[in-house]
Automatic annotation (TrEMBL):
Pfam families found in the cross-reference section: AIRS (PF00586)
Highest rank taxon of the organism: Bacteria
Keyword entries, A-Z: Kinase, Thiamine biosynthesis, Transferase
Name of the protein this chain belongs to: Thiamine monophosphate kinase
The keyword Kinase belongs to this UniProt entry's keyword annotation: yes
EC numbers: 2.7.4.16
PurM-like N-terminal domain boundaries: 17-126
GO molecular function: thiamine-phosphate kinase activity
First-level EC class: transferase
GO terms of biological process kind: thiamine biosynthetic process
């Protein structure tokens, strides 16, 4: 059993889905999802610009909501930034988040910022469920599986970067 599954099992309850928690409130059902995007784990310094880091962090989270059949509405951001982060880098980070939020109709409604040794981004997406929640755990043989991009493309890009190469953004 991997550590993520072990942790999820320790906190298991009726709300937890595959990519987000489904919560009923009055007449609406909401999906809450969160991901972390951390320097040294998900990317290395110099691989991406601050704008690209923010865009990727937001897109990863939006995809979780969409995969569950939910329309992303709101985002909460947690930012851990090194002391030497410049005003221009912060502006680029803001632009990356804002561009994706504008494109997908998402409003950033708050969050928190701390000092950190590395760049750490936490994104929480609050989405409105469109009908029935789609969970990976409900998949069965014969179901249609859809994907975007090229299968294996992420691994290919990672290997290129680890070998000192560059990839197109």
């Amino acid at each position: 059993m991997d550590k993520e599954r072990l942790i999820i099992d320790k906190f298991s309850n009726s709300f937890i889905g595959d990519d987000g928690a489904v919560v009923a409130h009055e007449r609406s059902r909401w999906v809450y999802s969160k991901d972390l995007f951390c320097e040294g784990t998900h990317f290395l310094a110099g691989w991406l610009s601050m704008e690209e880091i923010a865009r990727k962090a937001m897109l990863v989270n939006l995809s979780d909501a969409v995969a569950m059949n939910a329309k992303p509405k709101f985002a909460l951001l947690g930012l851990g930034l090194p002391k030497n982060t410049s005003a221009d880098q912060i502006s680029a980070l803001r632009k990356g988040f804002a561009d994706i939020c504008d494109e997908y109709g998402v409003t950033i409604i708050g969050g928190d910022t701390i000092g950190s040794d590395k760049i750490l981004l936490s994104v929480t997406i609050i989405s409105q469920l469109r009908g029935k929640a789609v969970l990976r755990s409900g998949a069965k043989k014969g179901d249609l599986v859809a994907f975007t991009g090229e299968l294996g493309g992420s691994l290919k890009g990672l290997r290129t970067l680890l070998n000192g190469g560059r990839i197109a953004s």
